[in-house]
Design goal:
single chain, mainly alpha
């Protein structure tokens, strides 16, 4: 049986990550994607997604 998380700790704390940081990083990625789309450089976005996955 696994123990429950301590009070004040959440799922992300157990995984060693931070929800706020994760959301912030995602926001940065979205901003970069919007900038690339605005300037017509979709190719770079596609290459980055392929390399991450």
């Amino acid at each position: 049986m696994t123990s429950k998380p301590e009070l004040g700790k959440g799922f992300w704390d157990e995984l060693g990550g931070c929800l706020f940081t994760g959301l912030m990083v995602s926001g940065v990625e979205v901003a970069r994607a919007r900038s690339r789309r605005k300037h017509g450089t979709w190719e770079l976005l596609v290459l980055e997604i392929c390399q991450q996955g």
